[in-house]
Design goal:
With 98 residues, the chain is mainly β. The chain has a domain at 34-98. It contains one helix and six strands, in the order E-E-E-E-E-E-H. A two-stranded antiparallel sheet has the order 1-2. A two-stranded antiparallel sheet has the order 3-6. Strands 4-5 form a two-stranded antiparallel ribbon. A hairpin with a 5-residue loop joins strand 4 and strand 5. The two termini are 24 Å apart.
Length: 98
Amino acid sequence: MTTLSKKTQNTFRVPSARPFGPALNSSRRIVCPECGNDLLFYEIAEDVTLTTSYLQNADGSFTPQSDDSRILGTVKLFCAECSHDLTRFHNQFVEMLF
């Protein structure tokens, strides 16, 4: 839990960038075993086909109309702090996307 520390009279500073307050359902949180990060993550999808449909305007410019993506390879999850491979947590990650 983040604590407030008094800096000067009537001025407080939160010493970390973590959300203030208790973590909800903390047993479901993914935590990087390498560095302890539990906030920032990224995915890398391999062999992806992106299809974008465009409409050409009267002036010759193009406006995107729709996007479609198809992932043909694997999708991996990584810690955004230390780049540790967290793919073993990917199913849990997908279940918690809202």
